Amino acid sequence: MFFVETGRLTITEFTPDMAQVVHENSLDDDNRRFVPDEVFETVEDASETIEFLMSQYGGREGPLVYPVILKSGENIGYVQAVPLEEGEWEVGYHIARPYTRQGYATEALKAFLPPVMETLGIGTIKGVCLADNIASRKVMEKSGFALEFEGIGNYQGAERRICVYRYGADGGSGLG
Prior knowledge:
CATH class of the domain at 4-121: Alpha Beta
């Protein structure tokens, strides 16, 4: 079982009863703008996705997606590692609008990276975001990622201005 704690957060595995809050957390404007494929218009859509994500736990094929939960019990978002081509992985995260600008994304990402990279047996992981997603860029920079590329690239199936970051042994500030 994947379980990480920080001073304010717990990162653990999804359970079926989280579908309602996952649906609600996915509906904010930032999620629609920056990761529209991670918007769940219905609780049923969220439930189906959670069922699939739960089926990925214990393996190394991914995606590996874990809820971020406040110590007080509120599910405020997620962190994830998603496989790319040729053995590379990409990190992702989303914190619901009412909980943004409080350092939760950075705290969750810093706590998540070492154990998930160890689980996957990888030394580096990428982070990709739209160039105008300033909040996401700041989270990656505060979490130790180094900017590798800024320019036009494929994002969500369209050519957009993106930033590609890397964290780990071959780039970024290394583990820890």
